[in-house]
Amino acid sequence: MSAPSLTPSKAAGTRPPQPPVDCPPRRGGSFARSLRRNLTAHGFLIGAVLCFAFFSWYPMVREFFLAFQKTDRGEVSWVGLDNLSTVFNDPAFWQAWRNTALYTLLALVLGFAVPFVVAIVINELRHGKGYLRLLVYLPVMLPPVASVLLFKYLYDPGYGMLNEVFGFFGLPEQQWLQDPDLSLLSVVIASTWMNMGGAALIYLAALQGIPGELYEAAELDGAGLLRKIWHVTIPQTRLILSLMLLMQIISTMQVFVEPFLLTGGAGPEGSTTTVVYLIYQYAFNFNDYGAAAALGLLLLVLLAGFSAAYVKLSRAEDE
Fold first, then answer.
1. What residues does 77 pair with on adjacent strands?
2. Are 186 and 262 in contact (CB under 8 A)?
3. How large is the average pLDDT for residues 131-151?
4. H-run or E-run covering 75
């Protein structure tokens, strides 16, 4: 007699065991686990957003409303375009814009070109690049006030080192900060020395990313140093050059520290009065916060226009 089979019979109507089916996880539980896992990252992100909102975005929104309001003895009233009319009728308004435009132009000639040339020179050297990078970046690490006081000593008409050098070579002494024709240029020179280190290192990093084969091919074609710079270096660093140009324009249009500390802000005959210094005068000397906000809003619109034009041109070139 045969032993009974332990396998269930198909005829008995039983089904073979089925593999377990995984149930899809609930979305709520998955989101909660993800939130707990990234709680630290979300905390840092929320903190950064709150800092930006409180110190950057709120002042911008507040300035927009303040530009159309007037505060008199603690009472705020809506005045429409009266603040803009006050700013436009101020004789110092157009002088401040002319000085700011001239300062930006001079800063582009010096502050934009000099760091690029310095970066090219350091990149061409075979030895001592690290020491030269440190030497170029040292002025950036100095406090701006200390750098400005150093240049104030150099520009002094009585015992300044610059006039001592001029006298050694038989050149006439100059009133660097007291002459209306030289004061703005003196401010540009000081600002260029103070801020060129960061730009020079950015350019140097871009130059070191250029393939050496391009320079070797240019040398085989008989290209000299200037032709290599024009046909290889500048095209390969075009993106970073355009970006630094935009940042240079934005930063120079907002110059305040250098003329304020070197020439007291206005300078001889108002030769160093800039737009930001005029905003400072409206707010803290005249207590006219509405006019200060209106002038700041005009500067914001102008710089936003520069930025929008840069983005549009960049997209057009990429396409």
1. 70
2. yes
3. 88
4. strand 75-78
